[in-house]
Amino acid sequence: MNNKLSITYLILIIAPLFIGCGNEKDGNKNNASASSLSLHVGNEKYFMIDTKESVVTWKGSSLNGLNTQTGYIYISKGELMIENGQLMGGIIEVDMNTIEDKNHGTDNNLVNHLKDPDFFEVIKFPFSTIAITKVASINDENKNITGNLTIKGITHSVTFPAQIEVKDGIVKANAKLVIDRTKWDVRYKSAKFYDNLANQTMSDSIEYHIKIVAQK
User: Fold this and answer.
1) Contact, 97 vs 125, CB < 8 A?
2) What is the C-alpha to C-alpha distance for residues 196 and 96, in angstroms, rounded to an integer?
């Protein structure tokens, strides 16, 4: 698998684990054209995300489940805050220009479509982010993470399960996030907004599998 963060055929959305700039209020839009994410480099509480080892895989499908697409996307930068061996916060930024289809790479009609206004409008919104706001422990490794997910300049709170391991100065995290893409204005072939699509209707759900490796 390529070292890429994945999002879903948009249904696609991403994406993403991934995502805009993370300071807007819930539901607001911000037409950010460049990254404004600032990291705490040198702060011993913060572990920098290894963008070569971290991967988000996206999965999208038709409503009937017969047509499924998967792919990847790059994390451009990010960090996790660790205190006493526990995850306390963090932020991840995704470069939407790196959207990739698993089977056909980056230069194909599907990927080009995902980048246009039907989906992520990447020229206008080149970055997406997720900022962790709360971590609830289930046990030593299993957590419920809450964060602000920003895509296309729109921010909503999301909560999802994750497994976190902190060992020998390295943080490893695996998470699964499922979103309703229409909340981030990704409406293409959604039954909520279009009638008579029949078997062309796309599911509103996008599934992200997120693998993160971070270190000081």
Assistant:
1) no
2) 31
Per-residue pLDDT tens digits for 121-178: 999 999 999 999 999 999 989 999 999 999 999 999 999 999 999 999 999 999 999 9
Domain 8-215, CATH number (from 3.40.1000.70, 3.30.70.3450, 2.40.128.110, 3.30.565.10): 2.40.128.110
For the chain, report the end-to-end CA distance as a whole number of angstroms. 25
